[in-house]
Design a protein that fits this description.
binds iron/sulfur cluster, alpha/beta, binds NADP nicotinamide-adenine-dinucleotide phosphate, single chain
Length: about 675
């Protein structure tokens, strides 16, 4: 039914894994990722299609998003759970779709413990998590026993629902992890105190699940190998726990890194690729069952390298399968340059999960929306001009061409990518290179006629006999009305990030949106320092020697010679307009680097003395060498205004349509939706 996957391109990654009672076709695990579809009214059918596409794309083993074993284990009120047969029946559509696509799928059982955002949340001790407003109930011994039985029942129901196995979520600071670590377990009964008592809960769960689900059922246990919080586990405890879990009947052990409440980013773009596989490697010699490694692995090349270095038996990737369902197939066919690479931005996946919105993907808006954003083939090929090769224009033109249209993409500059060409220059955002590479290749494979260095004007477009014109001309930086705005001290972020102008040692950054933050990171990053693992470990206080509990060490912040003032007119927290899951990390980065952050600023003027501002009614002068303006953008609509009354079919998309709160997520989605609408109406 499905294409046979050859093993030549990535020999380790694509080799089968024998689990005794069953075989996985390769070493690729699609890691657990909540999608929000689990709770949506038409969600299970959409979820089935989403997983089916990934199974068809060649993934060795899929793990679902977290499903609670009982109501107390919910992440949020009325979250997905598996505690009775009617719930199990609803999952059959998912397991059937995956099996028909020759895939295998495990259901993750996740008890949120004190991370549950509801009044029934429970934990080993009644301690509120620093990231939650909810104080959990302390579990009685009776409830602990009942919860162990609920895990086992959930696994048995998962089996009835057709799953090939379960993953027990024992990491990231959820309930099981809360029992294991002294940080959260202050009990004095048989479930707390000594290490033996603290690991009783996970071991009993593992035993009960194995007993109830039977021997020929995959049970993955996700062990927290590096908690990255004070009073987390120490290394000896991690090893002892993992060995205990193996002895209690696990089929595979998966790696968990960092609690959600850890103040260390572990999966954001700024984390170097494969930064944590050393932890799995350290454990591997102590185990005889297969071990999965994880975190910031997003290319088949990196995954293969990790396996070849012996860090693990399997590689888990979650977000990369939102970005590209055909990741494995493309790798197997020697077309890894065609993979739409996850850039670890979190903007459409985890940020959506935390905002209780359906998951999608910035670089692939179709993720989790497969049935709503169909891949079309046109019955009437049209000649279409797309103006602007930024994210919106690239997304629109490639989709239109794939649908069978004749597409001409005009770009005034000499390269494609638009604003992505700036983003890729920010230290820690190098992944944006990958999106440009992906679109460059996709332009070729879909046959888009790319016209670089070509400013498409009215004459060119009207002479071209186009059936449709799509204007994706983008944005231009906003110039605030301010006395002295044309002073030589004033620079635009474009001039600074492109490297055209180098600001002095004292710099004011005007505007603290995404670009104000990016500019501040750019200006404070130590010169010639690559974003290596060592640099990242030092800056965030991660100890690869694992000397202390939690794997923490004191931070070593690289000295920056510049003094930066990051300013905004509004009040409130800095970084709030950035993503929920990454804004705090950007804010901490700048705080660690000594950036002064001042809100509630009134800008007065720029002159030879510097930037004159007023804060709380008090005037002051920032004695800066330069002021970098990061005050948002204005849409570029002139071409559209010229064409709209002269041509019957002109569309305006991306930043050119609306610059406010524009980001690449909206631009790419706008491009895709416009392409679908054009072909649907052809
Ligand atoms: P932005 O997020 O809209 O921020 C621009 C800021 O400039 C505003 O928040 C505003 O803040 C200030 N401003 C607006 N008009 C001004 C004026 N006339 N004078 C002085 N200040 C003014 O725009 P951006 O930073 O250019 O980013 C563009 C888009 O890219 C945004 O959607 C952003 O989220 C996205 N992006 C995201 C990231 C990320 O890491 N997630 C990184 C880069 C870009 P005050 O009114 O408070 O001063
Ligand atoms: Fe990756 Fe960003 Fe897509 Fe999430 S939204 S899967 S982090 S590219």
């Amino acid at each position: 039914m499905n294409k046979q996957i050859p093993h030549s391109a990535f020999p380790q990654l694509l080799s089968p894994l024998d689990l005794g009672f069953t075989q996985l076709k390769n070493r690729v695990l699609m890691g657990s990722m909540h999608t929000g579809l689990e709770e949506a009214s038409d969600g299970m059918a959409r979820l089935a299609r989403y997983f089916e596409d990934r199974a068809k794309g060649g993934v060795g083993l899929i793990v679902t998003g977290g499903i609670a074993p009982n109501r107390q284990g919910w992440l949020a009120p009325f979250g997905a759970k598996m505690s009775n047969q009617s719930e199990a029946r609803k999952h059959r559509i998912v397991t059937r779709a995956v099996h028909e696509a020759d895939g295998k799928i495990c259901m993750q059982i996740l008890h949120a413990g004190r991370y549950g955002m509801h009044p029934m949340a429970v934990a080993p001790s009644a301690l509120r998590a620093p990231i939650s407003p909810i104080r959990p109930w302390e579990m009685s011994s009776r409830l602990i026993q009942a919860t162990i039985r609920d895990f086992a029942k959930s696994a048995a129901l998962a089996r009835e629902a057709g799953y090939d196995g379960v993953e027990i979520m024992g990491s990231e600071g959820y309930l099981i992890n809360q029992f294991i670590a002294p940080r959260t377990n202050k009990r004095e009964d048989e479930w707390g105190g000594s290490f033996e008592n603290r690991i009783r809960f996970p071991l009993e769960i593992m035993k009960a699940v194995r007993e109830k689900a039977g021997p020929d059922f995959i049970v993955i246990f996700r062990v927290s190998m590096l908690d990255l919080v004070d009073e987390g586990s120490n290394w000896e405890e991690v090893v002892a726990l993992a060995k205990g879990i193996e002895a209690a009947g696990a089929t595979i052990i998966n790696t968990g890194i960092g609690w959600h409440e850890a103040r260390i980013p572990t999966i954001a773009t700024l984390v170097p690729r494969g930064a944590y596989t050393w932890v799995s490697q350290k454990l591997r010699e102590h185990l005889s069952i297969p071990l999965i490694t994880t975190n910031r692995i997003n290319t088949p090349e990196k995954a293969e390298e990790i396996l070849q270095q012996g860090h693990a038996d399997m590689v888990s990737m979650a977000r990369p399968f939102l970005a590209d369902p055909d990741f494995v197939l493309k790798a197997a066919e020697g077309k890894s340059d065609e993979i739409n690479t996850c850039i670890a931005c979190n903007q459409a996946c985890l940020d959506h999960v935390f905002a209780r919105k359906e998951t999608s993907c910035l670089v692939n808006p179709r993720a989790c929306h497969e049935t709503l954003l169909p891949k079309l083939k046109t019955t009437r090929s049209q000649k279409i001009a797309v103006i602007g090769a930024g994210p919106a224009g690239l997304s629109c033109s490639t989709e239109l061409a794939e649908q069978g249209n004749e597409v001409h993409l005009f770009e005034a500059g000499s390269e494609i990518g638009g604003q992505f060409n700036l983003a890729k220059r920010i230290p820690g955002k190098e992944e944006f290179h990958e999106t440009i590479r992906y679109f460059k290749k996709r332009l070729q494979t879909t046959g888009v006629n790319l016209h670089l260095d070509t400013r498409a004007d009215e004459a060119l477009l009207m002479a071209g006999n186009f059936d449709q014109i799509v204007v994706a001309a983008g944005v231009s930086p906003r110039t605030p009305k301010l006395e002295g705005i044309d002073h030589p001290k004033v620079l635009s972020y474009l001039e600074v990030i492109s490297g055209e102008k180098t600001p002095g040692q004292k710099v004011a950054v005007m505007g603290a949106g995404g670009i104000g933050f990016d500019t501040s990171v750019f200006l404070t990053h130590p010169a010639d320092q690559e974003n290596t693992k060592e640099f990242y470990f030092d800056e965030w206080g991660i100890d690869p020697e694992y000397t202390n509990r939690g794997g923490l060490k004191s931070q070593e912040i690289a000295k920056t010679s510049r003094e930066i003032w990051l300013l905004k007119r509004s009040k409130g927290k800095f970084g709030d307009s950035l993503g929920k899951t990454t804004g705090w990390a950007h804010r901490l980065t700048l705080k660690n680097r000594g950036v002064h952050m001042i809100g509630g600023v009134v800008y007065k003027k720029v002159d030879d003395e510097g930037l004159h501002i007023e804060v709380n009614g008090k005037p002051q002068v920032l004695p800066v060498d330069h002021v970098v303006v990061c005050a948002g953008q204005e849409p570029l609509q002139t071409l559209y205004q010229t064409l709209k009354d002269k041509h019957p079919h002109v569309s305006l998309i991306g930043g050119a349509r609306e610059a406010a709160e524009l980001d690449a997520k909206r631009a790419i989605e706008d491009g895709l939706k416009t392409a679908i609408a054009i072909t649907q109406n052809a």
